[in-house]
Amino acid sequence: MKSSIKVLGACATAVVGAAFSSLPATAQEFTSPGGSTAKFYGQFNLGYLSYDDGQATTSRLVDNANSNSRLGFWLEFPFQNDTKLRFNAEAAVGFFQSNKLTVDGVDSSDWFVWDESYIRKFELNYVTPYGSFWVGQGSMATDGVAETDFSGTTVIGYSDYSAVAGGFAFREADGTLSSITVGKVFTNLEGSRRFRLRYDTPEFSGFTLSIAGGDDVIVSSEKTYYDIAARYSGKFGDVKVGGALGYNVSEETGKDNVENLTGSVAILHEPSGINGTFSLGSVTDGGEYYYLKAGWIGDLVAVGATAFAVEYFDSNEIGVTDGGGTSWGLMMVQKLDDYDSEIYLGYREYELSQTGTQYQDSTSIFAGGRWKF
Asked: What's the CA gap between 373 and 25, in Å, rounded?
């Protein structure tokens, strides 16, 4: 199964790449006389990441794993009685990811490589008045439940801290590199993409419920995953509100189940641009975290909206025993509407504490740009 998906994913990427190479940037969607549609899309999102672990600084050009460079397409076939069948294939381009960078830089790995791990989606979706059914590689029910965020700054930072500098290890006070990475400590505990079956209910007064079960097929694993999630989206006058709550379980023969509960809430006062985000989660062994973000979106320049935000992450007993981590950050995103692009800049400081061991503080700076088509 793994090899078959690898071949199919590579073929899908080649087809999408060929389509984009022969089409003008504005010709992305086609509709047949019968109403079927084909939509091609993608983005490039490169940035320069610099990480200082308190003793050594590593700086490299990387792909932004917050929202990596990718190509994809949708095929949609409408039927009677408000039903339709959709197919989605999507793959990362294959540039070196910001969450994989370490103090070794990219010396031990090619900056450009493509393998089956870069397949993001390869799925069928059957939409009916009674709900939506999914099969194939794609999002589990809890994928994204900790990331409800209206700040306009998610391209540079949100509750998934590991996406920026997750591969870097904290350095002990004596200079020794530990085995504890940023990504282990600052994680939002939500689900990911798996080869799964999923069902989403129709929307009821802004609420939807999702349930899924799946396995790791793209990357070999003995684990099986199950999850359930509820989502809400609505408006109260000028205030936009969104939220999600999810519970996920991973099972592995011979080991205890790992169970996580996580969720998020976001609000945006649209006239003023003032917004806030709150995410929290816990695991069965007692570890927990919370994430806060406050921001503002405004029209400072004519080229597009400008967004500023400040964030704070507190993690306890996740990725480290008898300790935890704290981090804060600043971020800015500038939209370039005429070019379907944005440029961004983010700064974070990280601190890890553990009984019996002292660690040096670390910082990251990440700047880059994203172009969507």
From this structure: 7
